[in-house]
């Protein structure tokens, strides 16, 4: 895979800061972009020079390195000591909040979950995937929607898989502790029932065990192998593929359709649209909501 190409470094003072003080060159940028694309399918494009510099200079300093060239040598080496993962973690963006893009959750509760929970009450299996879960607000919002429809869901065969490439945000999701200020979009009835002040963390609340029991957090690179073998009735992958190039987006949409159950649902980000071969198998069911269509007979 080829790296993205930066035409030129920033002009003026930024150029001096990047190239002279910290020796951050075009070649360094291309090496980093190639690694990120190879490992995670993330396309840094040609305009992320300042972002890469500002996020990685902290690692360069902490490692007592003088140049980005030395840093590139480190992350490219087999014995990088996990620094390659640290680099990916630093360069991935984790913007998330409870009930982000609320119409998706309204649709989930109104159109999707009633039949799924009815099936679960009869012994059926329900599987939902939050792909790119960040620190957990998305999968926990899904869990709260499930509990709003079926308060005993944690006693049924209902599971929500929450995955992210960054193990640190996955660990934060497992803890399930959030500042009270982050809970403003959680419906009042659900907030009072499923959140409680955390005695060990003043000003923060822990999500209840009923919701935690529904969610399993795992580290997963969407660009790599997927260990899951079963089908999902619902997949949330929102504001993730915007970081991939067109080839990576089309490939991911196709992979999702291959593990969606019949009539399964896919929710994508507000600025995303399914394209490529997957678009022939997914019918639009609303803004950024898709349903798997039956295969032609």
Give the key terms.
single chain, 297 residues, alpha/beta, Chemotaxis Receptor Methyltransferase Cher, domain 1, Rossmann fold, 7-stranded mixed β-sheet, 3-stranded antiparallel β-sheet, 11 helices, 10 strands, 41% helix, globular, disordered N terminus
Task: Outline the secondary-structure elements.
Blueprint: H1 13-21, H2 26-40, H3 49-62, H4 68-76, H5 83-91, H6 102-121, E1 126-131, H7 137-149, E2 158-164, H8 167-175, E3 177-179, H9 188-194, E4 195-197, E5 204-207, H10 209-212, E6 215-219, E7 232-237, H11 246-258, E8 260-268, E9 282-284, E10 289-292
Parallel strand pairs: 1-2, 1-7, 2-6, 7-8
Antiparallel strand pairs: 3-5, 4-5, 8-10, 9-10
Helix pairs in contact: 2-4, 3-5, 6-7
Describe the 3D structure.
- The chain is an alpha/beta fold and 297 residues long.
- The protein has eleven helices and ten strands.
- 37% of the residues are buried.
- It has two domains: 13-91, Chemotaxis Receptor Methyltransferase Cher, domain 1 (Orthogonal Bundle); 102-292, Rossmann fold, CATH 3.40.50.
- The strands form two sheets. Strands 6-2-1-7-8-10-9 form a seven-stranded mixed β-sheet. Strands 3-5-4 form a three-stranded antiparallel β-sheet.
């Amino acid at each position: 895979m080829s790296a993205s190409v930066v035409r030129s470094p920033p002009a003026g003072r930024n150029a001096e800061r990047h190239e002279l003080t910290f020796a951050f060159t075009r070649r360094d940028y291309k090496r980093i972009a190639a690694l990120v694309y190879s490992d995670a399918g993330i396309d840094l494009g040609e305009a992320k020079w300042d972002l890469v510099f500002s996020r990685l200079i902290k690692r360069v300093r902490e490692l007592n390195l003088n140049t980005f060239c030395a840093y590139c040598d480190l992350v490219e080496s087999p014995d990088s000591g996990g620094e390659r993962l640290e680099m990916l973690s630093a360069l991935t963006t984790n913007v998330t909040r409870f009930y982000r893009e609320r119409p998706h959750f309204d649709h989930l509760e109104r159109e999707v979950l009633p039949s799924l929970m009815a099936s679960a009450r009869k012994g059926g299996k329900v599987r939902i995937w939050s792909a790119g879960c960040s620190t957990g607000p998305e999968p926990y919002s899904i869990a709260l929607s499930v509990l709003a429809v079926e308060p005993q869901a944690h006693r049924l065969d209902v599971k929500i898989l929450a995955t992210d490439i960054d193990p640190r945000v996955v660990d934060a999701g497992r803890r399930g502790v959030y500042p009270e200020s982050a809970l403003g979009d959680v419906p009042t009835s659900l907030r009072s029932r499923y959140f409680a002040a955390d005695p060990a963390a003043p000003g923060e609340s822990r999500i209840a065990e009923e919701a935690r029991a529904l969610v399993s957090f795992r580290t997963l690179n969407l660009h790599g192998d997927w260990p899951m073998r079963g089908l999902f009735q619902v997949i949330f992958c929102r504001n993730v593929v915007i970081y991939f190039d067109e080839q990576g987006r089309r490939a991911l949409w196709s992979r999702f359709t291959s593990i969606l159950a019949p009539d399964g649902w896919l929710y994508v980000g507000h600025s995303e649209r399914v394209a490529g071969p997957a678009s022939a198998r997914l019918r639009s069911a609303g803004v950024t909501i898709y349903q798997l269509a039956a295969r032609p007979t």
